[in-house]
């Protein structure tokens, strides 16, 4: 037994990391008397657990934690970056391969944006990658209506305030102009809500296409639209300096615990009760690219 095995964490955080629910949902489940640790039903979320504790929800063991993993996903336009959409629109998570483990997105891309979206099975990793302090630059190819000038890019480089929101320094270059449109490359580190579209609006230009081409050292490259590819653990270790990223011989879309469809079914079954509620992979092995389901057809 290692020190890491006995490291304590809040019960709600542990449940969220297992991919069952958000921390807030976990707290509600605990208040509803649905969660037990080592056979004792909890009545408060102010409780810490270790890897040695047995946690159950409605009498069922929660999934084991996986090693932190990261995937590149080429998001096509027309998908919402959310697990659920109140308007019934297709989501990114509806279209992922069914044998992919439960994942969350690192940040978001809005409905009409496309390109690189990072996915992970570890909420702690997602939060770390989203923080500006991590220093990872996000780069976009942007098509706008109009002909931006160098002076416009200089304004962005100094940072701007628009509609009461302060946007930090943004790097921008005008790559080409054809007809009524121009292509730009925009680089930023903050990733505020609809930031690229907002700063272009501030300059007087309308974005007609927005493609994220990189997020830190992770590049979109030639990954086909709708495809998913796992990032090698060595890259995560080198970039994040975290030793817990270890290669396994598992196929890219598989892992311990529930797949996308299995976990969605498990979550739905649990949620209904709330209202009442080893070996190292060979270095030469190339990780396969998974093709997601078509974006124009809702997954069942």
Automatic annotation (TrEMBL):
Entry-linked CDD domains: PseudoU_synth_RluB (cd02556), S4 (cd00165)
Name of the protein in its database record: Pseudouridine synthase
UniProt-listed Enzyme Commission number(s): 5.4.99.-
Region (Disordered): 246-300
Annotated ranges, domain RNA-binding S4: 9-68
Keywords: Isomerase, RNA-binding
GO terms of biological process kind: enzyme-directed rRNA pseudouridine synthesis
Catalysed reactions, semicolon-separated: a uridine in RNA = a pseudouridine in RNA
Organism for this UniProt entry: Sneathiella litorea
Top-level taxonomic group: Bacteria
Coiled coil: none
Record field: transmembrane: none
Compositional bias segments (type: Basic residues): 283-300
């Amino acid at each position: 037994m290692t020190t890491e095995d006995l490291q304590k964490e809040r019960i709600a955080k542990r449940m969220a990391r297992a991919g069952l629910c958000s921390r807030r949902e976990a707290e509600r489940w605990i208040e509803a008397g649905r969660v037990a640790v080592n056979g004792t039903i909890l009545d408060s979320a102010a409780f810490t657990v270790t890897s040695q504790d047995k946690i159950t929800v409605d009498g069922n063991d929660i999934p084991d934690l996986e090693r932190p993993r990261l995937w590149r996903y080429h998001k096509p336009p027309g998908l919402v970056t959310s697990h659920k959409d109140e308007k019934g629109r297709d989501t990114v998570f509806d279209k992922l391969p069914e044998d992919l483990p439960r994942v969350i997105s690192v940040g978001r891309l809005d409905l009409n944006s496309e390109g690189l979206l990072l996915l992970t099975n570890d909420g702690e990793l997602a939060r770390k990658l989203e923080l500006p302090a991590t220093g990872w630059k996000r780069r976009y190819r942007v098509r706008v209506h109009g002909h931006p000038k160098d002076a416009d890019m200089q304004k962005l480089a100094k940072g701007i305030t628009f509609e009461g929101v302060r946007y930090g320094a943004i790097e921008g270059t005008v790559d080409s102009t054809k007809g009524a449109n121009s292509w730009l490359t925009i680089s930023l580190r903050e990733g505020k809500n609809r930031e690229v579209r907002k700063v272009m609006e501030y300059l007087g230009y309308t974005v007609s296409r927005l493609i994220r081409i990189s997020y830190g050292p992770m590049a979109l490259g030639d990954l086909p639209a709708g495809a998913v590819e796992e990032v090698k653990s060595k890259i995560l270790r080198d970039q994040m300096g975290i030793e817990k990223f270890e290669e396994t011989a598992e196929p890219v879309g598989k892992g311990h615990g529930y797949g996308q469809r299995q976990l969605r079914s498990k979550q739905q079954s649990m949620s209904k009760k709330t209202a009442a509620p080893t070996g190292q992979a060979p270095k030469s092995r190339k990780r396969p690219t998974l093709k997601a389901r078509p974006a124009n057809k809702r997954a069942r």
